[in-house]
Amino acid sequence: MHGRLKVRTSAEEAARKKKEQEIKVKTYRAGMGRIFEKRKNGQLDDEMMQITGQILSRNPDVYTLWNIRKECILKMAESLGNEAKQSLYDKDLGFTEQCLMVNPKSYGAWHHRCWILENCPTPDWEREVALCNKYLKLDERNFHCWDYRRFVVKKAKVPAEDELKYCTEKIHKNFSNYSSWHYRSKLLPLLFPHETSPARPISESKLKEELEMVLTAAFTDPNDSSAWFYQRWLLGYSQPALDIAAIRISKNLAIASFSKPIDLRTCEIETNFGFNFNPDRWQPVQKGNKYDVAWIVEDSFELGASDLQQYIFKCRMSDGKDYAINLKKCSDGFYGMKCPKFEYEFGAAVIEELKNQLESCNQLLEYEPDSKWTLLTASLLMRAIDRRGYHTKSLEYLQKLEKIDYLRQGYYADLASKWAIEKVLEEWIEQGDLTVAIDLSNLNLATIFYEQYMSIAKIVILRNNCLSDRTATKFNAFQFCENLDASYNQFSTPGVIPHIPNLKVLSLEGNKFSNNATTRLEDQMKNL
């Protein structure tokens, strides 16, 4: 009827959108075709800048076009003086802002802006800091802008104190700000380094303050993960520091294992008992790896009756740092192992704060017993306070998490395996006797951690766990193992256990092998 807006039917609307899309695709293809033709002919001119600008202003995520614009700018800038060159770069800075209005999270636009500022004659870094303030006011969780901010504040020489204050303001405005929490973790070690230990990120007094602050954030919204993640950083759940884990040398085999993967072929090995190790002879236990936690060398070693007070194995890494371990002499050679640090050790004031936080978590669990972040944090707090005393309780929480947060049950199962292995491993290393079995049976293990520390063990018992084929490659580290019991697990592929040179007894009964597979497995065992 007259005066009424006609509403398109769904079919008509779909046809209209399809026609619009076809026009856009046709225009895009024509523009890209023209760009590549001009590039092929070396025509990096104003027309090229115009065409790339037309496409990028609608879709700023086409990396190729940003690179072509760089080529154009460099070509044009060749014959210009500094003033004209600066004008050229400033114009493209303005263009990137137009693109960021279309998509504030465009990787290409932010990266292009970095390139412009690093190449123009007189970059205005203070202006860029103000630009970051503008965009983070619109969206304080724009991690692209946070990344760009770290770049420009370094160039502008903004004091770290000012940046920490800015982070604090953003966190108080919105606790759910992963980027700000992350940035905070980079600033605090610069401003509040630990008094005595370089391995610890921040001082004890500042750590206590941060724990109090993060608890407030976490309990404001227990279902938001950003503050919980930051708390994990405060508690020290990070990669272990590089160090020698274990060494063993026999008449025909030597193994060197480390807390983190390294390329041992780039290192220098030195001992005080006459052994010379050519770095080129070392091979990773996982064949084909460039970096590995365990390395072996097969050779004939003279185990002379030297009578030194101390046997030292020293390794100089590619970074120039020396790492050493004291070895003991045994009937068939030398061996040594270090107990890894599983968590940070905190002072009395911090421990008291951690206990208060654990109590708060337990109170919250009375009202929200299925709060996954509270359960996980409570288990981590127990580990930080007294991992041996709370060992059973922390594993109970992880078992509960496997049921509550079943989509991540593999993560919780792996974490439980890690903690269970840590307890047994620590006790085994404290005994310091290679002839004693490292008994990891009946622990419900889903995988193996710290295999580099077990590389010198004679007997490894993994009976009655949940280990599967994905774990078998870990056994490559067990080069000195003579008796391996992996019975009653979930291995399903015959021959999945790798060759272990010193192995005499291998138990695999109770796994998922078929009858034929069992026969083939028995044949393999006869050849051992």
TrEMBL record:
UniProt key word rRNA processing: no
GO MF, any single term: Rab geranylgeranyltransferase activity
Highest taxon of the lineage: Eukaryota
InterPro entries on file: LRR_dom_sf, Prenyl_trans_a
GO cellular component: Rab-protein geranylgeranyltransferase complex
EC nos: 2.5.1.60
Keywords tagged on the record: Prenyltransferase, Repeat, Transferase
One matching Pfam family: PPTA
Family stated for the protein in its record: Belongs to the protein prenyltransferase subunit alpha family.
Identification of the protein by name: Geranylgeranyl transferase type-2 subunit alpha
Organism encoding this protein: Hermetia illucens (Black soldier fly)
